[in-house]
Amino acid sequence: MVKRYNSEKIKQLVFKIYQAYGFSNEDSEKVAATLLYTDLHGIESHGVQRLAMYDHFIQNGKIRVQSKPEIIKETDVSAVVDAHFGLGQLNGIYSMEVAIQKAKEHGVGIVTTKNSGHYGIAGFYANLAATAGLIGMSSTNSRPAMVPTHAMKAFIGTNPIGFAMPAKPHPFIFDAATSTVPQGKIEVYRKLEKDLPAFWVAKNGTEPVTSHTDKKDLDLLRDPDANVALTPLGGVAEETGSHKGFGLGIIVEIFTSILSLGNISTEISPENLEVGPCQSFVAIDPAIFGDKEQIIERFSAYLQDIRHLPAVPGKTIYVHGDKEALAYENAKKYGIEIDDRTLEEITAIAKRLHVSTSEYLN
Description:
The chain is an alpha+beta fold. The protein is built from 11 helices and 12 strands.
């Protein structure tokens, strides 16, 4: 069952939990804000649903509470950051802030970060740049999850791409895995006991896995040596565009692990505590191309033209960021959605850390 909870109370609970781990007040606030941003915008796969995974990594030492990101190579417009296995959200905020500062000073800022951790949604970091009046992009690699076109097992991560640009009435925000869906979406469907649409998951390269009760196959999604994997955006065949998602996943790998000389997807595993995902952060000042306000006004008018196109009967045309803006208004008014199993996970973590939940979950 899914219920709604007051977002400010849940944010405060997450803050208390991260305080209890030993994170500073400032860092705990950043983590809570990042996770609640995700739930408030209707992306429940990467919000507080992820607390259990982060808890596991903190306990086994893959996430190191006291680690701080460090610039190890730098130019006026670029930097390489070693995150030293700190929490992904904190590494991501730090790295995008470096990119934003460089873009404000030199027009462009590009940062690639290695030895990081799972950082949530790519769009959050892209939107940090948009909020600063800049164009933002972010991406991350991950452990193998996606099967390349015509292959039999996973080799590439879900490797999402986030892009954001200032616009009216709200920023344009595109955020998507290069696989058909992210791993977190599968986890949410399994918690809700919902069957999967065809070709979110494939077995032996071409056979769809759809039943949420097929525990044996779905459990193998986390095994890089298994024959079960997420499909690339476009499915399993070139005729439906599988090669496009596959190619986009490789491009993400270039901007994250290859340029940082960090770990590629196949080198990342939850068991190996000395390897972590890599990320990229880009900020671009539109002013290097012309009058910034005119560019934003032109882009905003372009998006409005799309929204006003004739729509299929019974459907609404949304551009990227519209649904998230609506979800945000709804969640602020009625609360964020949390399923019972995720709530049980959060409650168990809080109990172990001696954090009271009674005042936050009513």
